[in-house]
């Protein structure tokens, strides 16, 4: 289950979610679909704030209507956290794919988000937050 909180805290590992990005894809096993939503989350690494861009993903029953509420209620695989695509700490950029043009775009996208977060711990524009995953 994914639950909402009004305040960010590192200890609860909160995500800011793009509620309009919910999508699914079929699996070989027709009992399930893979559902995902774009997410941004922050963590501390050696005392520095780091912003991560990626997705939260889970298997859902294939007969379940794909809605944000159903995704939040049925989400069960929180122990693994989000799937990171890009990570930026203000000095170093990391990417799962390591494609230069994608790194540049992600840096330009994530840099102001990290600066804004460091200033006031606010949810990034276009995202809803803060959400934690509870098993």
What would you note in describing this structure?
There is one protein chain. By secondary structure, the protein is α+β, with helices and mostly antiparallel strands. The protein is built from 2 helices and 8 strands, in the order E-E-E-E-E-H-E-E-H-E. Strand 3 (23-26) and strand 4 form a beta hairpin. The relative contact order is 0.26. The chain is globular.
Secondary-structure blueprint of this entry?
Elements: E1 2-4, E2 15-17, E3 23-26, E4 32-45, E5 48-61, H1 68-74, E6 83-88, E7 93-95, H2 100-120, E8 128-133
Key descriptive features of the protein:
single chain; 135 residues; alpha+beta; 8-stranded antiparallel beta sheet; 8 strands; globular
What is the CA-based Rg, rounded? 15 Å
End-to-end span in angstroms?
6 Å
Q: Structural class of the helices, strands and pairings?
A: alpha+beta
User: Could you say which overall geometry the principal axes of the C-alpha atoms support?
Assistant: globular
Q: What amount of the residues lies in strands?
A: 35-45%
Count of runs of 4 or more consecutive helical residues: 2
Count all strands and give the number.
Answer: 8
- Percent range of helical residues: 10-25%
H and E order: EEEEEHEEHE
Mean pLDDT across the residues is: 88
Question: What is the domain tally?
Answer: 1
Low-confidence stretches: none
Q: What summary fits the major beta sheet?
A: 8 strands, antiparallel
